[in-house]
Amino acid sequence: MSETVLSLKNVTIYQENKVILSQVNLDVKQGEFLYIIGKTGTGKSSFMKTLYADLPLTVGEGTIVGYDLAHLKENDIPFLRRKLGIVFQDFLLLPDRSVNENMLFVLKATGWTDVASMQSKIMEVLDKVGLKGIANKMPHQLSGGEQQRVAIARALLNDPELILADEPTGNLDPQTSAEVLAVLKNINENGKTVIMATHDYAVIMKFPAKTLKCEDNTIFEVVQKTV
């Protein structure tokens, strides 16, 4: 039986005292791929922010990768985020550092000290996203799709239990979006759980998976053909 990596019960999500989503009930098992869809402003990003504790959970019960979101202490948040791989719409690569230096920055910040182990891990994650050989390039030397794949590789550095991807194809053209999705699906097929917020219905049709929709302050499952 698959382990539950995320469980939300009777959760209400607020942003600046305004109800964004109410009565959220959700269980996500290890190895699932889940889309969160909806128009801009319907709560996709607020939902994701609640999962990585950028927004506090004040109503309802929630656990994610073993952490209790409703009773999470501030000094536990960095440890929670090490068990999550977070990918944003903006690649957030440090522009004055090579790909390798971007990766080293994250590893050092999360407690890695052995140089050989760090370099081995960097090569491993770059290989997983199909970018072996670009470690010494600067971000501006890469295409948008390559930069996003570097961001996905960076999210894999600490072997997270769950990947949270918030609009990861939002700044990419359709072909590049499909390439990035193929990378995420491959990571999922190798055992990682992925939750992806998106408004890119084309990639959902190309790579179908369980889909939840944010609408009218609620979140509910939709069948693929009605997306």
From TrEMBL:
Gene Ontology MF terms: ATP binding; ATP hydrolysis activity; transmembrane transporter activity
InterPro entries: AAA+_ATPase (IPR003593), ABC_transporter-like_ATP-bd (IPR003439), ABC_transporter-like_CS (IPR017871), ABC_transpr_LolD-like (IPR015854), P-loop_NTPase (IPR027417)
UniProt keyword Plastid, yes or no: no
Pfam families, per the entry: ABC_tran
Protein origin, superkingdom: Bacteria
Protein keywords: ATP-binding, Nucleotide-binding
Any one Gene Ontology cellular component term annotated for this protein: plasma membrane
Domain ABC transporter: 6-227
PANTHER family listed in its UniProt record: CELL DIVISION ATP-BINDING PROTEIN FTSE (PTHR24220:SF470), IMPORT ATP-BINDING PROTEIN (PTHR24220)
Family the UniProt entry places it in: Belongs to the ABC transporter superfamily.
General function of this protein: Part of the ABC transporter FtsEX involved in cellular division. Important for assembly or stability of the septal ring.
UniProt-recorded name of the protein: Cell division ATP-binding protein FtsE
